[in-house]
Amino acid sequence: MWDSRRTLIFTICCLSLFVVGLDNTIVNIALPAIRTDLHASVSGLQWTIDAYTIVLASLLMLGGSTADRLGRRRVFQLGLLLFTLGSLLCGLAPSLAWLVVFRVLQAVGGSMLNPVALSIISNTFPDPRERARALGFWGATFGLSMALGPVLGGLLVPLDWRAIFWINVPVGIAAFVLAQKYIPESRAPRTRRVDPVGQILVIVSLASLTYAIIEGPGTGWTSTRIVALFAVAAAALIGLIGYERRRVEPLVEIRLFRSAPFAGATTIAVLLFCTLGGLLFVNTLYLQEARGLSTLQAGACTLPTAVMLVVCGPISGRLVASVGPRVPLVLGGAGIAAGALALTGLTSHTPILALLGIYALLGMGFGLANTPITNTAVSGLPRAQAGVAAAFASTSRQVGLTLGVAIIGSAVTSRVRGSVTEGFAAASHVGWWIMFGSGLAVVVLALVTTGQWARATSSRTAAELAPADPVAVPS
Fold it and tell me: For residue 297, which of 281, 308, 280, 284 has the smallest C-alpha distance?
């Protein structure tokens, strides 16, 4: 058993993960209420989600390295302060534009929480077995926040949708005070150099791509603005690859992609969370606007997905330990593909019991496929690169959420004909087909990137990277 001091430090770190994870699902359930109160368009709702995930994805790696340099507790508390302030301001936002701005502030704070909390946990639990146990509870905390988000949102939104943001405030204040009192300050003995050029190129590429996808249906895919944004996104990505390859300590280690397990895991993370982001966004609008369910009813309907995600996560972990990542990844991808395929015939009158079964199947797929991602990403790589690889896997998850809301949301909403009540169910079919394709792609990638050939590429990459990394890079 852990002593009381370490248990308390771990609990404080979990509080930060809980509020950030809760924010992902609780905001989705409030989208129809936000749309009505702030007179928002569907693309405006997409920005309510993606403004947060874009910034979070772009700054996660910077947040971890900054904490290693300036002090983990100090940066952790700064993240809590910004996230709590952003949550308070989101609840006071007078318009959609201000809500998006304050969501960005939330995300800047959020980028300093999860990676820094993981560093604090690693520093608190030096024993590998204790650390593994702590990370298991850490994953369960994320699943619990995902599960409670829709239900808690269903309870709060009828009172006032702004309450979904205000609920973060007391939790953030409590975590800040407890961190000051109980978490010792720590720094890494050696830190990575700051890479401002790489950071800017990441933000420009991801923001330009997302903006083009969200605004394309309304502005026109061939309009000068949209074409220019796609060109900027591509140019920034090409520039990032070329620039990072020349740096001694790059923000994005391009050579890691020579390892098939790493490349496969990061691609699977994007596909998996693209599907999850699209599901949360589209399904919320379907249940509340096309089906006419209350926020509480809609939240309750999504519980099977979250519950199965929580239940199947530990099962997947045991499978990885006993037979490797291939089996849970294949089963997870197949579950997502099967669930999405079942939704391609969705109507506004599909029986609720059938929906609940499909949601449970999708949750099983997410739970099985998510757990092996980080393990697969770092498989066979030198320990000095494990932190970087794990951080990149976490970033890929946030990129997937961003693209899921943008791509699937735009594909669906651009096809709505007539009233939302009558036309949304039919329009949603294209989104389910995209998710079906993503599930199949996960299965194929799992088969290709977890075999003997893939392990050989990981060994070659490890041999190439090891001489350049004499000391461990903290996550």
Answer: 284
Are 354 and 382 within one domain?
A: yes
221 and 344 inside one domain:
no
> Are both 3 and 110 inside the same structural domain?
yes
Domain that holds residue 162: 1-188
- List Cα–Cα distances, 401 to 157, 188, 381, 445, in angstroms: 23, 30, 26, 19
% helix, strand, coil for the chain, step of 5: 80, 0, 20
Per-residue model confidence as pLDDT tens digits over 219-265 = 888 899 999 999 999 999 999 999 988 887 787 778 888 888 889 98
The whole-model pTM stands at 0.83
CA distances from 139 to 38, 113, 313, 326, 472 (A): 35, 15, 8, 20, 24
How many whole angstroms separate alpha carbon 377 and alpha carbon 384?
A: 14
Which DSSP state fits 7? H
Same domain, 63 and 165: yes
Domains contained in the chain, number: 3
Looking at the structure, do residues 231 and 377 belong to the same domain, yes or no?
A: no
Contacts of 406-409 with CB under 8 Å at 24 or more apart are: 406/46, 406/50, 406/209, 406/210, 406/213, 406/214, 407/213, 407/274, 407/278, 407/434, 408/274, 408/275, 408/277, 408/278, 408/281, 408/282, 408/434, 408/435, 409/42, 409/46, 409/214, 409/278, 409/281, 409/282
| CA–CA gap between residue 4 and residue 13 (Å, rounded) | 14
Q: Say yes or no: 346 and 369 in one domain.
A: yes
- The encoded tokens of residue 36 equal 């009505």
